[in-house]
Structure formats: C-alpha cells, structure tokens
Amino acid sequence: MGVEKTNIVLLIGRPGSGKGTQAKLLAEKLGWIRLSSGDLIKEIRDGNEPFSPRVREMYDKGRLLPNWFADYLLESGLLELDSHVGVICEGFGRTESQARHLCDIIDWLGRDLKVINLEVSEDEVRRRMLLRGKTEDRPDSNADEKITERLNLFTEETGPALEFFRGCGRVVDIDGEQTPEEVALAIENTLKKS
Fold first, then answer.
1. Taking the CB of residue 20, how many other CB atoms lie within 10 A of it?
2. What global pTM score does this model have?
3. Is 10:164 a contact under the CB 8 Å cutoff?
4. Residue ranges per structural domain of the chain
5. CB 117 within 8 Å of CB 173
6. HEC readout, the chain
7. Which of 67, 89, 110, 119 shows its CA 20 to 30 Å from the CA of 77?
8. Could you give the CA distance from residue 76 to residue 193 in angstroms, rounded to a whole number?
9. Which fold has domain 8-193?
10. Could you tell me if 31 and 84 are in contact, meaning their C-beta atoms sit under 8 angstroms apart?
C-alpha cells in the first residue's frame, strides 16, 4: 500500500509533538485536505455559537471536549468529501472509543487509514508547549499544571486509542524530535513504503 492507496492519514502523539505542523506540511506536499479538531474547536471557541462559551471554558482549562463532539466534527468533515480526496486528520482518535468510531467510519467509506505516531519525550513537549503558550498566546499551554494535565490525559485517554490502532496494524512510529523537515520526510517515506 503506497500513498496512492492510503488516503487518510491520522497524526497522533503527545500534546506539542508537532502534529499540527506535520499536518500542514503533509497536506501542502500531497495536496490533501487537512482536518484538525484543534482548528475546528478554536473556530467554535472564538465564535458566537450557542455552545461557544462552554467550549471556551473547557479549551482554556486544557480539557478535552466530549468524545461525541470530536466524533461529530470528524463525521461532518469526512462525509462531505469525495472518496478520492486524501485527508490528513489531526486531533481525532484521542480515546479508544473515538479510535473505534473512526475506524468504523473509514471502513464503511471504503477508505484506507494509516496512523502516524509522533514520538516525543515528555520533557521535550513541556519545553515546546511552554514556548507555544508564550509565543502563540495559547491558554491551554501557558502553565506547567495545564501541561501536566494534558500529558496525563494523553496517557490515560489516548494511550489506549494508540494501542487499539496498533492492534489493527495501522500505526507507524516516527521520531518527532527531529527537525520538522526531517519528520515530514520520514512520514512521506513511510507512506511510500507502506
């Protein structure tokens, strides 16, 4: 299976592992659509939807939104696209139930999924997130206790999702501590070989 067969790529990894950066680079390189739960949630957070205040409250505390909310965002995004359009997903499949739901949708659509796990140490993601909190004015990354909470959530919630994907044979681990360009090249090479 090469890039021509894999038409949905899910980027997963600890907060601050570079998923957003890699999603942008990969989408640009391949000409694929990028679906980012973070971007969609930020739009809602900053908007005037009836539920924007609730989203804003949870987002600013660094908490995950309910599984059904992320499922809704993903379903809406995928069902609106033609089946030949390649998609880079980032920020979905954060819990085992979301991972199962995502696989059900993709299998039903007859599409193929590859999960790229960006491996970055906790120390490195702390450094990156504190920097991001300052330079990007990110309320979810501006204090060590919020970062600790997000890392704990990753271990508790996303760890089982990653193992589910791994059990399905869909995961490729990539060293996320390389330069962004090196990580992008490693992902591209993985997609060509897989």
1. 17
2. 0.83
3. no
4. 8-193
5. yes
6. CCCCCCCEEEEEECCCCCHHHHHHHHHHHHCCEEEEHHHHHHHHHHCCCCCHHHHHHHHHCCCCCCHHHHHHHHHHHHHCCCCCCCEEEECCCCCHHHHHHHHHHHHHHCCCEEEEEEECCHHHHHHHHHHHHHHCCCCCCCCHHHHHHHHHHHHHHHHHHHHHHHHCCCEEEEECCCCHHHHHHHHHHHHHHC
7. 119
8. 30
9. Rossmann fold (3.40.50)
10. no
Residue 34: phi, psi to the nearest 5? -110, 125
Query: What does the pLDDT look like over 57-67, one tens digit per residue?
Result: 888 877 778 87
43, 46, 47, 49: CA torsion to nearest 10 = 90
Instruction: Compute the distance between CA of residue 9 and CA of residue 2 in angstroms, rounded to an integer.
Output: 12
Instruction: Check pLDDT > 80 for residue 85.
Output: yes
Q: Mean pLDDT over all residues of the chain? A: 88
